[in-house]
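Example 5.3 — HTH cro/C1-type domain-containing protein
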Amino acid sequence: MNINFLISKAISEWIKDAKSNRDFGLNHDIDEKIVRRILDEKEYRIPVETLKRICDARQIKLSDFFSKIGE
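Solution (predicted structure tokens):
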């Protein structure tokens, strides 16, 4: 399975729990446009910097994130 799809799918689940795309973006230090891309593009290639910001905001390590999506 495509790694970009797995990453987007995992983050999409977190976005769905937010009040809005804007709220998720503000709480995770990313632009709302990126949030929409994650949701709209099935295999959006999230830059590592963006993924790091999201993981930092959720207080998880990148290695833990990748372990989770690799299960």
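Remark. Helices lie at 3-16, 21-27, 32-40, 48-57, 62-70.
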